[in-house]
Amino acid sequence: MIGAILCGGQSSRMGKDKGLLKLEAKTWAQTAIDKMAVLSLPVVLSVNSTQYSEYAAIFPSSQLVKDDESLLLKGPLCGVLSIHLQYPSEDLFVFACDMPLLDPVLLKELYTHYTSESSFDAFVYTNEKEPEPLCGIYKANGLAQILNLYRMGQLARHSMKFMLEHINSSFIALSPDQKTSFRNFNAHSELNGL
Length: 194
Known about the structure:
With 194 residues, this protein is an alpha/beta fold. Helix content is 29%, strand content 22%. The chain has a 7-stranded mixed sheet, sandwiched between helices. A two-stranded antiparallel sheet has the order 2-3. The relative contact order is 0.17.
């Protein structure tokens, strides 16, 4: 398994690259890497082509996976499938960089579900019955199915939530006290208090 930190968004509402924002002197990308360290997994960062040089100045280039230009996709799904194309036999633990409040205990909990329930292709939390696909585990076989649907033109919507409807997914409901872990930040005005 590989930890896959998603940093490749446009960050248009934030006005600057979210992965390079700082929290206690660390970039959000580094904060996400540090949280994944509880699982002792190798970690890669998903970036788009416009971000690559800025990230390469901070992180080893071997740790960066640029969006695959053969995929006519945008958003997180492009990043996830780009990593899958580079590491087709690896299951991916996907984690978006814009969730700096996430408690690493939740990463461990999800990993425990993955190790104990082998029949599923994806493992994600739900918040008010809505999936939280940007902190989830996706098995290589499930990602291969999605890639195949995309290549056959049968992936009607290019979203992570839509993808979950097409693979055998295990959903774990968040308890009320866990929900703040999944607060993500999209605009500069939301950063007060961080």
